[in-house]
Amino acid sequence: MSAYAIEAILAMGLVTLACRATPFLFFMRRRPPAMVDFLQIYIPPMIMTVLVLGSFKSVKFTTPPYGIPELVSGLVVAGLHLWRRNTLLSILGGTALYMVLIRVM
Amino acid sequence: MDNSPARRALGAAFKASVPVLLGYVTIGLAFGILLVKSGQPWWLAPLMSVVVYAGAAQFMAVGLLASGTGIAQVALLTLLINARHMVYGLSLLDRYSACRRFKAYLVYALTDETYGILTTVRPPEGADEERFYALVSLLDQSYWVLGSLVGALVSSLARFDSRGLDFALTALFIVLLVEQTKSVRKRAPYIVATVATGGALLLVGPANLLVAAILASIVGILPFRKALT
To answer: Does B18 touch chain A (CB under 8 A)?
Structure first.
């Protein structure tokens, strides 16, 4: 178990480092091509959209409580963040609300 | 009072890192608690925070490790979640180009929050710039390692009901999405990604949803290239 976990962590570490190092390795001396410029702007918002929607993939919307804790807490996170733009407040507020909702609903 | 450039850099770096202090300790705490609750030994939490040091990917790994997901798929999902970090590097090319001694560490430690600080806070007059960047990065990482260590220890010593704490990952993604909507104001990427996620859910199902949806999004945005630039 631990050998597997350590292998997985090393793989994750290498991939993460590669992501962070790529621009410095390739574009230190020359400007990035137009295609890279285009994708570097539009890939992050698309990935975040997919990750947010994907977080709700195992929510059962047809049986009680019909995904209400997830949807309400998710909207509260977005609302808090649009309002105060304080990452900690948004995450803690939404998570605390979710933990309460799944216990009372 | 020692007013050397190095000393000035430390003071300014600590001040700049304070907004991250509370956030990293708290979210690191949640990560440590979840990892140990999922059946892993306590030391794996700080180890991951040193070796991986990427919040969203570490939270995602809790579930992946618990279900014994293959290494290749773990690596691919890490790539997709952390691909945004390539963008951070692109916009710091100029600023880091003069760095030498700490450059490797600066690149390794470039998280969302550290990027946010380094692109908004300027090093003070007369301070050693590279040292300032490195100290902000190091302070941020120490908060994260500390939070995850304490969370893991608390979780392995005390018993409590942490059901629902994993919503912190969803909340983190929502925060990052809201941040994106502030900087990328076009509608096309959000619509393309939503359609791609829906399509991927129907075609490949929930198990490989993320990979399929992200690849479909990238292909799907290409026709809009002319309109968006």
So the answer is: no
